[in-house]
Amino acid sequence: ELSCGTLVVDLFVKDCPKACLNFLKLAKLKYYNNNLIFLVEKNFLIQSGDPTGTGKGGRSIFGILNEKSIGNGEKEAQNFKRGSQSPKHAPSMKTVGYFEDEIRPDIELNKKGLLCMANTGPNTNTSQFFVTLRGDDLEYLNGKHTIFGEVVEGLETLDTLGEVFVDEKHRPYQDVRILHTFVLDDPFPDPDGLIAPDKSPETLRPGEETVEERIAYGEDIDKKDEGRTKEEIEESIRKEQAKSRAEVLEMMGDLPDAEIKPPENVLFVCKLNPITMDEDLELIFSRFGEIKECEIIRDRETGESLQYAFIEFTTEEQSQEAYFKMNNVVVDDRRIKVDFSQSVAKIWNKWSMSKRAPGTIKPIPKMHDSKEGNKNTPHSYTTRSDTSNRERFPNSDRHNHRSERRSHRDRHEKHRHRDRDRHEKHRNRDKDRGRDHRRDRYRSRSRSRERHR
């Protein structure tokens, strides 16, 4: 029984009798009670069986029985702090109780929930064990660890264990402990000197545990979740994640403020027909109220519609009514999608312009007709004001500029193709001349040979 669920395991008593006997007798002695699951590697394994909680301790049942037979168990138990004790007080090989591996070639690490002995090398098994959390890509561990059992009930508990939050050493931030061990069937007789306790230990931590205390397994980590439903908790988590992402964007300079919110009177319309014009869309949506601005976003170079637009109403009620009545409506043979805009581009532009110091605005040259002035006349400049593109460039002028660019591009393409044809013609002519020259030279040589004969 774990602090996060229950596991039922079957042991391979015929294939690995020594490892199974060790595990069963330690469970009878309540040796595993309150032990930490000190190692959790997601989608790999969990490890426990060390009363010190460090991964460097643990003794087998054979070492415990040898310790009792030697008669110095109490003294060594007090000095048993693996990794920190001096060689003088270190437990001996007999009291640790290493026993040999029981490797079976027909038993492989190929499934989730296999129970294996943890070791530090060949034939160094004690009390530590691990359970696999996956069944693939574990072939490299075959032949190195004794596989002596498998989980038959409680695989969902393993899934829960695999998702706990851990530190850089893979120890859970909130303690996960083995609370109780129950032996349902023991085919091995008890060895001499084994006396099982009448009840489980009352302490929440083993006496040999040396790691720092963390959040207890029964302690509520987040008391603010008390009395809230699962949906409310998930909604709260989503809001916190959105806030953290906004703070990151603010630090990167992509948002003026993490608390900024998009305007609620602006609608986002997508899946438009490319032939739909701004005036058409504004006329359709104007029946819901006064429209401050309606703009279909177009390509900068070609002027073609990108098939989405932004519509700004004067009030939020008008935008809400337009949203409920215009979503999935067919416009110009296209079923459009309408949603509330999440863009803060205009707010960002106003904020960035307001943050600029006076006199630092980049001047824009003012265009003038070459007929009215000579080339020696100095250019006049004007400052960039905080006005929209629509106010600075009306739709008609903007389309005129685009048509001029297109005509210029067409003329350029025409000249380029004409030059290419001209070069191709000259190249072919040169080839023909070279061919004629070689033919004439060959004929002259033939005539000279005839005269010589």
Automatic annotation (TrEMBL):
For this record, an example GO cellular component is: nucleus
Where does the record place it? Answer: Nucleus
| Protein name as catalogued | Peptidyl-prolyl cis-trans isomerase
* Annotated source species: Aplanochytrium stocchinoi
Q: Which residue intervals define the domain RRM in the entry? A: 265-343
Q: What EC number(s) has UniProt assigned to this enzyme?
A: 5.2.1.8
**InterPro entries linked:** CRIP, Cyclophilin-like_dom_sf, Cyclophilin-type_PPIase_dom, Cyclophilin_PPIL4, Nucleotide-bd_a/b_plait_sf, RBD_domain_sf, RRM_dom
Comp. bias regions, Basic residues? 399-426, 440-453
**Belongs to which family?**
Belongs to the cyclophilin-type PPIase family. PPIL4 subfamily.
